[in-house]
Amino acid sequence: MEGAGFHSAEVWGENADRFFPDAEAITRWIDQPSLVPFIACVAEQDKTSFREFVVRRMIEETKQADGRCFETFRRINLLARK
Question: Which of 10, 35, 59, 69 has the fewest CB atoms nearer than 10 Å to its CB?
Fold first, then answer.
């Protein structure tokens, strides 16, 4: 950060795990904002199948016995002044 002209840099981790009430709720989260940076790089003819694959796998990996979906979130936060 100092090399880019910033000072007083602080970095900290954050545990932001989250339960989604159902598969529909996690699908909305996947669509916006999770897929946005990736879908732009996928060829137009592949966008639908790419999205469907990601949604299906996320639900498979996160669905709990009670129907909710649990996603582990780890954030790295950075605060600096210029």
Answer: 10
Polymer length in residues for the chain: 82
Which has the closest alpha carbon to 78: 16, 8, 5? 8
One-letter-per-residue 3-state SS of 24-47: HHHHHHHHHHHCHHHHCCCCHHHH
In the predicted model, is pLDDT for residue 80 greater than 90? yes
- pLDDT > 90? residue 2: no
The pLDDT value recorded for residue 1 is 83
Q: What is the pTM of this model?
A: 0.73
Count of structural domains within the chain:
1
Report d(CA 60, CA 51) in Å as an integer. Answer: 14
Taking CA atoms, 63 is separated from 10, 43, 69, in Å, by 35, 29, 4
| Domain coverage including residue 66 | 2-81
3-state secondary structure of 1: coil
